Amino acid sequence: MRNVAVGIDIGGTNTVMGVVTEDAKILAEASISTQNYIELGDYISALASNIKELLLKVGEHNLKGIGIGVPNGNYYSGTIEMAPNLPWKGKVMLADELKRHFDCKIVVTNDAKAATIGEMVYGGAKGMKNFVMITLGTGLGSGVVVNGNLVYGADGFAGEFGHTTAIVGGRQCGCGRLGCLETYASATGIKRTAFELMSTYNVTSKMRDIPFNELTSKDIYTFATQGDDLALKAFDITADILGRKLADLCTVISPEAIFIFGGLANAKELIIDATKNYMEKYMLPVFKNKVKVLPSALLGTNIAVLGASALVM
Amino acid sequence: MRNVAVGIDIGGTNTVMGVVTEDAKILAEASISTQNYIELGDYISALASNIKELLLKVGEHNLKGIGIGVPNGNYYSGTIEMAPNLPWKGKVMLADELKRHFDCKIVVTNDAKAATIGEMVYGGAKGMKNFVMITLGTGLGSGVVVNGNLVYGADGFAGEFGHTTAIVGGRQCGCGRLGCLETYASATGIKRTAFELMSTYNVTSKMRDIPFNELTSKDIYTFATQGDDLALKAFDITADILGRKLADLCTVISPEAIFIFGGLANAKELIIDATKNYMEKYMLPVFKNKVKVLPSALLGTNIAVLGASALVM
């Protein structure tokens, strides 16, 4: 009987789940709308029935457990705590609630940490003892691995690199503070930078025909590859700020490599290479030319589902 | 026969060494001038003969090893690499050179990491799995403990928190870069802040009668306790910057506590408490009121010698 694990990626919009084998094959996948379930009980029921259906689909198996990646997920307590973009407020006993439906190991962590485990188990960080994972999505998520172990910290919430200060007194962040890194280095961050540039300069740009609510980081990338000066400048500023903050992080952690995941990571020269160049520019001499900056080896896969499954595999 | 270890603290000015027992008693201590030995060979000979003399003094013993804390000391290779304040340039094979004189385990790390081990083994961090040690001296040294282990990183040089950027494009740092935290939060940092304040404001201050090369952080503390407004403001700015950067560090590491060592740590309300207040002000909500800021429990002791000895005990 083959071993499988269920990996669940709970996002603000959708929840994606998959049944994964030991060699990282996703045998079956399903998705429900997170936002449709204002009541936690209804959500848990929908989640449980979808998982059971998926497990039926894959035939005979030995279920090793269920791993869940979710914003503000806590590894130690199996809870979600104060997640700003989820329907359920306060502290949610996620693992305990799901245990009513499944008699197996259930492990919770945040989405970026699940992706980090995914990179370590299936991706480019195989065999690395010290590395950092950066996920550039709506926000900036991160996972830090030290001595071969993911850093959870005293309370399970370590690794919120996106909420370190990039610019003192800077942009308003969803967390209620100002100038967090993710307000600059993320899909929304680069859009904010593009709008700041449009307000500062008179240079023509195709971005000037698109409203704030419609412009995507992918648009900015497309325009940049077409030579749009403001779009190129938006990438340059993003790489500058991210590179500077990564140099800071290297100074404390001294990782072997930094992996970058998310749609923006597809912009190889404009994000990966440019960030590496700025990182080297700002780096403390003793760390210069030691730390690799690489696109995730799992780009284009559902790394969050894979990583979540790896939590229990 | 009792077990002892030799702890050595190599500083830019002096090298202090001691023979330490398992219960942290320093049985014998000696000191030589680091600056007097331009040739490494002469320094190693002087070090070895002093250690041998100390070991003779303490009578019959079982030598567990020699631990050394030194700026830019590398745990993995037993070397000193590119230390700006020591007479020997480039890469110094410290452990190998000393092994010619002693047939025992010899462990090298940097001075702040040795202090961190000291706090963990003998001090206030006993039993803690996740904490940070900050030493406020001429510069700002640090050690980060995650999952019960000191973080050395991929190359052994992790934990250089004093060289993360506090103010972009800020003060010139000894490392060749601008705006490093230690140019603000250290004994010299607070002095630079005091001089900046004297240049900015017209307020009277006793500090105006003391030249730059003579004013000490202890003077600033004394004036502050006497109600000198500029001296008080210098402490306030130091605590603000250090508190903000510690909030950043907590966001990534999530420590249980932060210990502060060094002369400045004696200024309890003006440094320890004020830094804690600013740290809470800047803290990501999920970490608020969780992380203790404490003076080192080993204040007033030779923590560097104790910590170095703990490396091999």
Describe what this molecule looks like in 3D.
Two copies of one chain form a homodimer. With 313 residues, chain A is an alpha/beta fold. Chain A folds into two domains: 3-118 and 302-310, Nucleotidyltransferase, domain 5 (2-Layer Sandwich), CATH 3.30.420.40; 128-295, ATPase, nucleotide binding domain (Nucleotidyltransferase, domain 5). The first copy, chain A, has eight helices and 13 strands. Chain A has helices at 40-57, 94-99, 111-122, 187-200, 217-225, 229-253, 268-282, 303-310, and strands at 3-10, 14-21, 26-33, 62-69, 73-74, 79-81, 91-92, 106-109, 131-136, 140-146, 149-150, 257-261, 292-295. In chain A, the strands form three sheets. A five-stranded mixed β-sheet of chain A has the order 3-2-1-4-8, sandwiched between helices. The first copy, chain A, has a five-stranded mixed β-sheet with strand order 11-10-9-12-13, sandwiched between helices. The first copy, chain A, has a three-stranded antiparallel β-sheet with strand order 5-6-7. In chain A, α5 (217-225) packs across α6 (229-253) and α6 crosses α7 (268-282). The longest helix of chain A has 25 residues, at 229-253. The first copy, chain A, is globular. The two termini of chain A are 15 Å apart. The model of chain A has no long low-confidence stretch (mean pLDDT 95). Chains A and B meet through β10 and α6 of A and β10 and α6 of B.
